[in-house]
Amino acid sequence: MARRSYNQYCGLSRSLDLVGERWTLLIVRELMSGPKRYSDLADALDGIGTSLLAARVKQLEQDGLIARRQLPRPAASQVYDLTPAGRELAAALVPLALWGLRHEFDEPRRPGENYRAEWTLVFLATLIDPSATTGLRATIQFRLDDSPAVLSIDDGEVHVTPGEADHPDIVVNTGLRTLAALTAAGSPPSLTEVSERIRIEGDPALAQLLLELLSRNRFGGLLG
Amino acid sequence: MARRSYNQYCGLSRSLDLVGERWTLLIVRELMSGPKRYSDLADALDGIGTSLLAARVKQLEQDGLIARRQLPRPAASQVYDLTPAGRELAAALVPLALWGLRHEFDEPRRPGENYRAEWTLVFLATLIDPSATTGLRATIQFRLDDSPAVLSIDDGEVHVTPGEADHPDIVVNTGLRTLAALTAAGSPPSLTEVSERIRIEGDPALAQLLLELLSRNRFGGLLG
DNA sequence: CCGGATCCGTAACGATACTG
DNA sequence: CAGTATCGTTACGGATCCGG
Asked: Does the model's pTM come out above 0.85?
């Protein structure tokens, strides 16, 4: 059975031939916060049929965008992870995700709508200029609208993981809309300016640095 | 009939709820090279059903991403055009299009595959730093793998249109892969270096400037 | 000719049940 | 846990037709 294609010699068309089908890009997004098991994916992607998920990961693996890895014992389990090509794709999704974020500013979270902090945090984290974090090592616990995720900064490497950190340096408690607005701010606000909308527990110096990393980001004003 | 939604409070999911269905983003791409009539779209998007195209443009219009405009008389016709929100979306597609471009480098154009120069040129044109073109006014006729499109630079404004220009300042004859590689080059090559792969007729100074605009672009090495 | 609408066969998707 | 099998529903593709 041949794969459906737009049959156009065009970068966008070819991208969509590969990853334009339903759910595919959300699987990629899911793997941006670290390797995941099949059931992790099924759990996060509410509404996807298990059969369709299996077909998607198989296709993504064949296309070299994700890889299936066996976890070291005694985990006795396997995980899916992004390949370098998959990470490049993930980076290319950032502007599209931010565009969606800007356009949903006006309307709050809908009742019954699924939500995980890492879904947004993985994209906001890519805005941090890695070269601005050399020598820095910090574990930042976020709680966005009550959903927990961790931003880890380790000397130029920035990662996001779901859930709770063991010993976070600071804890940031805020809402998604506030956080997103921060990345578009341009100049970093002071802690007191945002104290009403962002509650931060822990080292104030690190907190202020975080505000600067997010607001004076790599893209400057390049994105809408 | 309710619209299908991923039901996730996430920028990427919301984007895909809006424009993730088949053909939708290609309609947006098509309008990046100027307003188009319904039949222009149907002609460019080979394989789309006329019924589906009508449904897509209607939905895009309802979502405020495109607008239907009546052409001044005696055209007696209507065109679709991007709204400001639609243009922001188009800008957000650039990295995805470039990602596809990079990953199709290895394989040439497939036999029977549709191709239009403006499909690629609209994305490459966004790489040009507008502030680097202040005071510049130039009409550049491209012929990429024999398909014609025009790049117009007018004092900070950069536009791409399909087809032939009336009085181009220079004519650039090259292939898509060469042109794409140029944007990833970093430092601009000299005219003699690329003379084998890019044939340029007209003012050499303008030609050299064009090479510089495309290679030292806005994103630097930010994109893979 | 342009700008669609209608109809119908096929492919993709969603939900549930089932299995190694 | 990591999928496969089945089946009803929705979306898409191609053709034809229709009003301005």
From this structure: yes
